Amino acid sequence: MSVRYLSCGDTAFTVEFGNEISPEINGRVMALHAEIAHARNAGTLEGVTETVPTMRSLMVAYDPLATSRADLQPRIDALIARGLPTDMASRRVVIPCCYDDPEFAPDLSEVAERTKRTVDQVIAAHLASPFKVYVLGFMPGLAYVAGLDRALYLPRRAQPRVRVPRSSVAIAMDMTTIYPFESPGGWHLIGRTPLWMFDKRREQPVFLAPGDSLEFQRIDRKAFDRIARQVEAGAFDWSALVNP
To answer: Mutual orientation of helices 23-41 and 69-81 as an angle, nearest 10°?
Structure first.
């Protein structure tokens, strides 16, 4: 696969793998992200300060006093030429979600009507979708998670909300997301998780990461309230949700 290199000022450039969003392209992005991290740790790719994955490209930032794009680009070309595996191991993360409370899922009935499904069928399709975190963006902790069942594809809402509650689970197009803070938003709200996607008290404040495989687990309001209290108190065992 041919790649394109684009300048991002004098301290970074982008390695672009394609013009579409797909598991294969994103897999190559994440594989290069991992290969560069490995080379940096081994001391064989000096001067790289950070790599930032997106859905279809990887931004490579560097220290211009230590290296240059002219030096780095052929070395990255060599990494790509060796082959980038797209089936790399990833974390498997389970997200508990309550779909039952109308306060949590104000758009669920409308989604069912517009997709010609029952509410239970919408929930089942969301639970069964093979989700993967492609990229973080818009605000700290907000993950763009692709893989939504095609039966649930809908455009964004014609009229966005001024306020979407924190931890709302929403869908739009072929994606789902979880709002890490109360914010404006135009996606369809179908549930809510008791988890916080961003919590500055944690050693790693952002819970999800690009490359994560994601599975939603249905819980009732009683379980939601119990977990929410633990999260609020800082006593929740986050490791129980992750299979490395």
So the answer is: 120
DSSP strand pairing (92-97 vs 213-218): parallel
Same domain, 120 and 204: yes
Rounded to the nearest angstrom, the gap between the alpha carbon of residue 128 and the centroid of all alpha carbons in its chain is 17
Owning domain of residue 170 = 92-243
Please provide the DSSP assignment of 154-170 as one string: -PPPSS-EEEE-TTEEE
Same domain, yes or no: 187 and 103: yes
Tens place of pLDDT per residue across the chain (244 aa): 589 999 999 999 999 999 888 888 988 999 999 999 999 999 999 999 999 999 999 999 999 999 999 999 999 999 999 888 766 668 999 999 999 999 999 999 999 999 999 999 999 999 999 999 998 988 999 999 999 999 999 999 999 999 999 999 999 999 999 999 999 999 999 999 999 999 999 999 999 998 899 999 999 999 999 999 999 999 999 999 998 7
CATH code, domain with 72: 3.30.1360.40
If asked whether residues 146 and 221 sit together in one domain, one would say yes
**Rounded to whole angstroms, how far apart are CA atoms 169 and 197?**
11
- 172: CATH: 2.40.100.10
| Number of domains within the chain | 2
Q: Quote the pTM value.
A: 0.85
CA distance 175 to 181: 18
Question: Would you say residue 87 lies in a domain?
Answer: no
Instruction: Give, for 192, the enclosing helix (H) or strand (E).
Output: strand 188-192
CA 119, CA 105: separation in Å to the nearest integer?
11
Residues with Cβ within 8 Å of 155's Cβ and at least 6 positions away in sequence, in order, are 172, 173
- Structure token digits, residue 86: 């797209």
